[in-house]
Specification:
The complex is a heterodimer of chains A (about 450) and B (about 475). By secondary structure, chain A is an alpha/beta fold. Chain A has 14 helices and 14 strands. In chain A, the strands form 4 sheets. A 7-stranded mixed β-sheet of chain A has the order 2-8-7-6-5-3-4, with helices on both faces. In chain A, strands 11-14-13 form a 3-stranded antiparallel β-sheet, with helices on one face. In chain A, strands 1-12 form a two-stranded parallel sheet. In chain A, helix 7 links the parallel strand 3 and strand 4. In chain A, helix 6 packs across helix 7 and helix 12 packs across helix 14. Chain B has 2 domains: about 260 residues, 3-Layer(aba) Sandwich (Aspartate Aminotransferase, domain 2); about 110 residues, Aspartate Aminotransferase, domain 1. The chains are: A alpha/beta (about 450), B alpha/beta (about 475). At the A-B interface, helix 1, helix 2, helix 3, helix 4 and helix 5 of A face helix 1, helix 2, helix 3, helix 4 and helix 5 of B.
Chain lengths: ~450, ~475
């Protein structure tokens, strides 16, 4: 058992004596007796070796698949070795928020570089230093777009359903009405969305590619929002940004997304990375920390947390958001990943996702009863019908070490990344044929 | 220091991906981006060295004493990192079938149970990703509770004037109006002021205890009773739980819900600003409103369940899971004896250092026994010598000590808030005290040396005014 207290019992006694105390209880004399806790109903503390055995035991009961064909918000991409090496450096792991700029230039510069890369990926003007995850990024973006006379939100039903839930939570507490326009053919129903947007609409929000993998006509959606005087929030997959038209090119006002695909492990759901970037016009409405460049008293380039007049520690109840801690180390992870990949590597990764997903779709659709549900261009996810219960198919796949797609209404949502080899895709198709062809 | 973009040379890169082993197909022309993103093109060695340089200009917990008040910068045990990096956790998809992720679910379940026991709460959600996110979640519980009872008039949240800025900001995000109540001369909640603020529009109270000046409010039961009698609920901000974990429980103080910071109290690292984790606990009557899913145990198996009247989600999936793994590792290491021992060690270290600094001439804002942290006021020193709390903080940098939290709480002028934590040895405290006293001496004899500090850091004081007036928030190619 350890409390990671270096001082021995004898030393602690001496320290108490220096305070004129004989018992540690005296330190807590101010706490009323009736509030003192009895012994916690927890196990006794354990040695490092015992704890290791327990936790390793828990990890070992999870099933690790050799091939993963499931995405839906968490993606299995290759993580370069250098990413882990860099981001496990003790200084980065253990440092506090870089409020003391003179001894925090490393973290500050890494965030400045991250902000630059997010702007490059999204084609937007300014990025913040991150928020909790892609869903919170979308929710914060929707809040950013609120105007005195425009306070309703129109969401595409082709957004990740969990993202919709989070946006609804954030809007409900601010009494902001939210309309969800049901998806059509796996994407945004542009006509229905246009009909739902009116003079009170603050913004629309949609996802590129959609939750069902469909490549949206993002330019048209942004233009539609702007014609109605509303803003457009576009949630993008960052890997897809290696090839797809950027939010900047499409005319979005705020670009957000889940940064997990950028070198962050699936990790049963977190920690992840919410990235947020906006047009110059919305800079001062961005929530959370932002790093800016300046100079020190000797004219050396220096970085600081800036535009803090937006933030809770200065503005309190008038802040643009309550966010304090963000996902700094995940932002650094994304930056190292993007630097390791480079523009060529990212483009190649995106292309391979696209190519392999199309190869897989073709291979799966050879099986009778397996068909593409949506007749739309897709990126690296797609929905097929499934002639047998999805659970039956996934169980058979699991026996071969394959994590099958996510069961969704009307079939299965598959995901294919650069990590899936042709061999794995062929094995997937063979098993699907075996199970569904019976 | 060069930016990574300034190290970029066209055509350089790493050999990460194999050639594509399936037929290529064309992306529709109108869907393609036009230019390429200007990401760095860099060899692996230069990439590695770049970040090693950045690491050298970053002050981590192992680089020196880190007495940052209200932030609980305790040691981050290495075993936690190893456990969080196990492939049996990192490689698990959050939407895997539950029977294939029993280990992950058990981690969640055990952590929920342990945090419930430590805080005196009946149910816990691990979904919030940070402290402020936990505050927001806790307030949504309070909101959902009143709404479920059809009590729509409760629009106000009471926040003491000594509170952390996230408290009022979270209350506004949760749709409440903020009512600030004053602190008395001891830094405690002014009971008369609190009573005066009561009414049928009070939804609840947000409070830290020990409070932000490092004192345990002995009137806590009276305070929570006042709120309850008015029909409101009490929210415990767990920012300062390190002082009392295993010693006194928020649930026993009359609080109805609580958030804890795993990245403070439960030793998970701060990561230069995150990821943290801000689990929320609550009493049974609030449990149906918790965000889902939460982990449950049915017989020998674990499963996710969404509480019956859940107000919704605050994040995707089940929160910052790998941070939770670290916290569980820590809780198992400390156990029922180690948890109160840690609190006791934190309070002992704080009082030991406070006495040394007080004896040496620093003025304490609230003399007497403190909890895990104490607040000094340099108001008099500034009048005498012109040396501010900022000057002292900046001079500490020259000695490899991370400065205390400055100018917080707002109710103390020229405040420096010192939290040594339990993981520092007596020698570290002794040495730090010597540095503090040397600086006090300098303030009286050579104030100029403090106004111009720091002198030994990679950069001098940065020009923050220019940074905010003419924002440069990204690099651009010339």
């Amino acid at each position: 058992m350890s409390s990671y207290i270096p001082n021995t019992a004898a030393e602690q006694k001496e320290m108490l004596a220096a305070l004129g105390m004989t018992s540690p209880d005296e330190l807590f004399s101010v706490i009323p007796k009736e509030l003192r806790a009895s012994e916690l109903k927890l196990e006794s503390g354990k040695s490092e070796l015992e704890v290791r055995r327990i936790i390793e035991g828990l990890a070992s009961t999870n099933t690790r698949y050799s091939a993963i064909f499931r995405g839906a918000g968490s993606y299995d991409h290759y993580i370069p070795a250098i990413v882990k090496t860099v981001t496990s450096k003790e200084e980065f792991v253990t440092a506090y928020t870089p409020y003391q700029a003179e001894i925090s230039q490393g973290v500050l510069q890494s965030i400045f570089e991250y902000q630059t890369m997010i702007c490059e990926l999204t084609g937007m003007d300014v990025s913040n230093a991150s928020v909790y995850d892609g869903a919170v990024a979308a929710a914060e973006a929707v809040l950013m777009c609120q105007e005195r006379k425009r306070q309703t939100v129109v969401l595409s039903g082709a957004l990740n359903p969990q993202v919709v839930q989070v946006i609804k939570t954030y809007c409900a507490s601010r009494s902001i009405p939210v309309t969800v326009v049901p998806a059509k053919d796996g994407g945004t129903d542009a006509e229905a969305m246009a009909a739902a947007v009116n003079g009170e609409t603050a913004c629309i929000c949609f996802q590129q590619p959609s939750f069902y993998g469909v490549i949206e006509d993002a330019e048209a959606l942004c233009a539609m929002a702007h014609e109605a005087g509303a803003k457009a929030v576009m949630s993008v997959n960052p890997i897809a940004m290696g090839v797809l038209k950027t939010p900047g090119e499409c005319g979005a006002d705020v670009a957000v997304g889940e940064g997990q695909p950028l070198g962050i492990p699936m990790g049963f759901g977190g920690p992840y990375l919410g990235f947020m970037a906006a047009t110059q016009a919305l800079m001062r409405r961005l929530p959370g920390r932002i790093v800016g460049q300046t100079a020190d008293d000797n004219e050396n380039r220096a970085f600081v947390l800036t535009l803090q007049a937006r933030e809770q520690h200065i503005r309190r109840e008038k802040a643009s958001s309550n966010i304090c801690s963000n996902e700094a180390l995940c932002a650094m992870t994304a930056a190292v990943y993007l630097a390791a990949m480079g523009p060529d590597g990212l483009e190649e990764c995106a292309k391979q996702c696209y190519d392999k997903a199309h190869y897989a779709a073709e291979a799966l659709c050879v099986v009778p009863g397996v068909e593409l549900v949506n007749d739309k261009p897709f990126f690296h996810e797609f929905v097929t019908t499934c002639p047998v219960p999805a659970e039956t198919l996934n169980k058979a796949l699991a026996e071969k070490g394959i994590l099958g797609g996510l069961p969704v209404e009307g079939g299965i949502l598959w995901c294919v990344t650069e990590k899936n080899s042709r061999e794995q895709i062929d094995a997937l198709a063979a098993t699907v044929k075996e199970v569904c062809g019976k | 220091m060069k930016l990574i973009f300034e190290r970029s040379r066209s055509g350089r890169g790493l050999g990460l991906l194999p050639p594509c082993d399936v037929p290529r197909c064309e992306l529709p022309e109108n869907a393609r981006r036009t230019g390429r993103p200007a990401l760095p093109e860099i060899g692996e060695i230069d990439l590695g060295r770049h970040y090693t340089e950045l690491a050298k200009q970053t002050h981590g917990v192992n680089d020196g004493f880190y007495p940052l008040g209200s932030c609980t910068m305790k040691y981050n045990p290495r075993i936690n990192e190893e456990m969080a990096a196990l492939p049996g956790f990192t490689g698990i998809h959050p939407l895997q079938e539950e029977q294939t992720a029993q280990g992950c679910l058990e981690v969640l379940y055990r952590t929920q149970k342990a945090l419930g026991e430590i805080t005196g709460m009946d149910a816990v959600s691990l979904q919030p990703a940070a402290g402020a996110h936990g505050e927001y979640t806790g307030l949504l519980l309070i909101r959902a509770y009143h709404q479920a009872r059809g009590d729509l008039a409760r629009t106000k949240i009471i926040v003491p004037d000594s509170a952390h800025g996230t408290n009022p900001a979270s209350a506004v995000m949760a749709g409440f109006k903020v009512v600030n109540v004053p602190s008395d001369e001891h830094g405690f909640v002014d009971l008369d002021g609190l009573r005066a603020a009561m009414g049928p529009d009070v939804a609840g109270l947000m409070l830290t205890n020990p409070n932000t000046v490092g004192l345990f409010d002995p009137n806590i039961r009276t305070i929570t009773d006042i709120i309850h009698e008015a029909g409101g609920l009490c929210y415990y901000d767990g920012a300062n739980l390190n002082a009392v974990m295993g010693i006194a429980r928020p649930g026993d103080m009359g609080f109805d819900c609580v958030h804890v910071n795993l990245h403070k109290t439960f030793s998970t690292p701060h990561g230069g600003g995150g990821p943290g984790s801000g689990p929320v606990g609550c009493k049974e009557f609030l449990a149906p409103f918790l965000p889902g899913p939460v982990a449950e145990k049915k017989g020998d198996t674990y499963a996710f369940a969404v509480p019956a009247q859940s107000f919704g989600r605050v994040r995707t999936f089940c929160g910052n899971f790998l941070v939770v793994v670290r916290a569980l590792t820590y809780i198992l290491s400390l156990g029922k004896e180690g948890i109160p021992a840690a609190a006791q060690g934190a309070v002992l270290n704080a009082n030991y250092l406070m006495k040394k600094l007080a004896d040496g001439g620093y003025e304490m804002a609230y003399p007497g026994i403190c909890m895990h942290e104490f607040v000094m006021t340099l108001e008099e020193l500034k009048k005498e010598t012109g040396v501010s709390a900022l000057d002292v903080a900046k001079r500490l940098l020259d000695f490899g000590i991370h400065p205390p939290t400055m100018y917080f709480p707002l109710i103390v002028h020229e405040a420096l808030m010192v939290e040594p934590t339990e993981t520092e040895s007596r020698e570290t405290l002794d040495e730090a005290a010597e540095v503090f006293l040397k600086i006090l001496d300098e303030a009286k004899n050579d104030p100029e040396n403090l106004h111009t500090a720091p002198h030994r850091t990679p950069i001098g004081r940065p020009d923050e005014v220019t940074a905010a007036r003419t924002p440069v928030l990204r690099w651009k190619a010339e």
